[in-house]
Design a protein that fits this description.
Radius of gyration: 17 Å
Strand content: under 5%
């Protein structure tokens, strides 16, 4: 503001910089170490934005870390009884906080399609299925299991 550089460091611009290929390999490594894997940088608490961070890490080949994050983050929802993907999940919240949002006690969607990114990430980066032509008329399958013992899918 007023020409002064903000001291706030966030994951958002950095993860998009990686995801869209704006950084050199050295810059990517620095962002990964000092921002995305740095617990002192505020965590993302919506599954929608978590997707972009995890895809940036997958694009850098860190499927093992992403698998742990998926187990912790989406597994945390499962541990609280989720049967679908939530609009927001913050592991530090307790009790009724998990359903409150927008100033309403039950304002949070507990069935939110934007939270389904593990489905996409597992198919694209773990099964390694990517189209080479429209409609998957031709495709490549190059699995990177990232610590999984096995995985099965169909195209």
């Amino acid at each position: 503001m007023d020409g002064v550089l903000s001291a706030n460091l966030t994951r958002y611009a950095n993860m998009f910089g990686i995801f869209f290929g704006y950084f050199s390999p050295q810059q990517q490594a620095a962002v990964k170490e000092h921002v995305l894997l740095n617990d002192s940088v505020p965590k993302i608490t919506t599954p929608y934005m978590q997707f972009y961070e995890l895809e940036a890490l997958c694009a850098m080949g860190d499927q093992a870390h992403v698998l742990k994050e998926m187990k912790d983050y989406w597994g945390g929802m499962l541990g609280l009884g989720a049967t679908s993907f939530w609009e927001k999940y913050d592991p530090s919240e307790k009790g009724a906080q998990h359903t409150a949002m927008y100033g309403r006690p039950f304002g949070r969607s507990l069935c939110h399609a934007w939270g389904a990114s593990p489905v996409y990430l597992l198919a694209k980066y773990y099964l390694g299925v990517r189209p080479l032509s429209p409609g998957y008329a031709s495709y490549v399958v190059a699995p990177v299991l990232g610590g999984l013992q096995w995985m099965e899918g169909a195209v």
